[in-house]
Each structure stands twice: as structure tokens, then as C-alpha cells.
Specification:
Elements (H helix, E strand, L loop, with lengths): L4 H17 L18 E3 H13 L4 H9 L11 H10 L18 E2 L2 E2 L7 H4 L17 H17 L4 E4 H8 L2 H11 L17 E2 L13 H15 L1
Antiparallel strand pairs: 1-4, 2-3, 4-5
Helix pairs in contact: 1-9, 2-7, 6-9
The chain binds iron/sulfur cluster (SF4) (2 copies).
């Protein structure tokens, strides 16, 4: 039997946490300007969060999300591997409608994350070398952008057949028992080559296998040790 996708996801998170321990960044506990409702994730990561909320009696938070999710939020048109496929074909990807309203994430309370141990990769990988000021962007090392992109590609790859989108949208999609059970059946299947999508879901992109890794030539050699470990985990 193949390793369960959630176990692979945990291994990938651990690998990234080990890597990120060595980074020099301005991020510290209680600094939370980056915690907005524009975070994206896969259904696999959403399922992990939902399991946690349900098992800790916090399912009512989902109703709060459903009732208060702002109309303005980042809703990606493409998944990371869709974007890679455009690059591979030498085509321009469609414009993404970024949102700059910066409305705080529903899981942020007193500048602390209520689901810190379960937060998706989009939160785990967000580091700035300079402390962010309001209305100013984070400053991210280009090598870190490459590492993060490759991790995103692998996470999407192991959740192929699932969906990708705004964190709130993914959670709202998975919240009904019927959707979640259907997704669980697919997630625990041995057939990881099944890339059929679980639902037609407006507002969410379909996850795809990796078409090619987005690694600039100047980062290839430095990335090899991480790539080797990722490859062992995700295949
Ligand atoms: S990315 Fe910016 S706002 Fe977020 S923790 Fe780091 S320094 Fe703070
Ligand atoms: S899930 Fe947690 S870490 Fe991620 S944006 Fe929300 S509060 Fe911040």
C-alpha cells in the first residue's frame, strides 16, 4: 500500500521546517501583517485543517468563515503546476487578480494563529528578510522563492485530482460531509495516478501533476539536496 497522502504532506512540512530553521529572516512570533484572507492552499491541506477543527470541537469556525468571508479576496485562476505548464509552453499565463485589501485571516486572534500546527504551506513558507510595514511588501530572497515554488509543485502533485484555491474557499468547499467524504475516498486510494477531478468547483483550480519544475539555472545545483529528499518523499 502506498503511503497515505496526509502522511506524505506531513513529511514534506517537516522537510521544509528543517530547511527554514536555517534562514535569516525578520519574521517573529506576534508579527502578523502577512496573515490575510489571501492565503492559498490545496484540498489536502484543507482536509488536514478540517480534521483538526472537527476533532478539537471548533467546527463552528467554519460557519464564521462562511458568514464573513469578504467578497474581495485573492482567488487564483491557476494552480502552481498550471502556471508551470504555461511557462513550459512559452505562453503568457492569464492575469491573476491580486487583492491588496489585507483583511486579517479568520484564524488570527490577538496576532496568534489558532491553527498554527496545521497552517498550510502558503503560511509556512512566507518569510521576509525585512520586517513588513503596513502597505509594504515582504522582501523575499530569490532562492527562497524557488524553493517555495518547488515545494508548492510537489504538494499539488501529491494532491492531484484535488483542488487549489483561496484558503476560505477550499475550507467552505470541503465543509459539507458529502464533499469531504468523497474527497477522503479519493485521498486514501492507492491509485495516485487517478487525476480525475472530484467536483466541478467554480472558484477553485484543479490540481495537476508536475509538468516540469520551475528552477532557474542559477539555483539548480544549490537545490539538489532538497530536490533529492522531496523526490524520495513524493514518489
Ligand atoms: S512576512 Fe512580514 S508580516 Fe509576516 S511575519 Fe514576516 S516580517 Fe512579519
Ligand atoms: S492560517 Fe494562521 S498563519 Fe496562516 S494566515 Fe491565517 S493566522 Fe496566519
Amino acid at each position: 500500500m502506498q503511503k497515505l497522502r496526509l502522511d506524505v504532506l506531513d513529511d514534506i512540512y517537516h522537510l521544509y521546517d528543517d530547511f527554514s530553521k536555517g534562514l535569516t529572516v525578520a519574521c517573529k512570533r506576534g508579527c502578523a501583517l502577512c496573515c490575510t484572507q489571501n492565503v492559498t492552499m490545496t484540498t489536502l491541506e484543507g482536509h488536514r485543517i478540517l480534521q483538526y477543527l472537527i476533532s478539537t470541537g471548533q467546527r463552528d469556525l467554519l460557519q464564521v468563515i462562511r458568514d464573513t468571508t469578504p467578497r474581495k479576496r485573492f482567488k487564483p485562476v491557476l494552480s502552481t503546476n498550471d502556471f508551470a505548464a504555461f511557462c513550459l509552453r512559452g505562453e503568457d499565463p492569464p492575469e491573476e487578480g491580486y487583492d491588496s485589501s489585507g483583511i486579517a485571516c479568520m484564524f488570527l486572534l490577538h496576532d496568534e494563529c489558532l491553527i498554527y500546527g496545521q497552517r498550510p504551506f502558503g503560511c509556512r513558507c512566507f518569510f521576509s528578510v525585512r520586517e513588513c510595514a503596513k502597505d509594504a511588501s515582504a522582501v523575499v530572497d530569490p532562492f527562497l522563492i524557488t524553493v517555495n515554488t518547488v515545494f508548492l509543485q510537489f504538494i499539488e502533485h501529491i494532491d492531484r485530482g484535488g483542488l487549489f484555491g483561496n484558503m476560505n474557499d477550499v475550507l467552505m468547499f470541503l465543509e459539507p460531509d458529502m464533499h469531504r467524504k468523497h474527497y477522503e475516498t479519493q485521498m486514501t486510494s492507492d491509485n495516485t495516478d487517478d487525476t480525475s477531478n472530484i467536483y466541478d468547483s467554480p472558484g477553485l483550480a484543479q490540481n495537476k501533476p508536475i509538468p516540469a519544475l520551475l528552477i532557474p539555472p542559477k539555483h539548480r545545483e544549490r537545490l539538489q539536496p532538497i530536490l533529492k529528499k522531496l523526490g524520495e518523499l513524493a514518489t
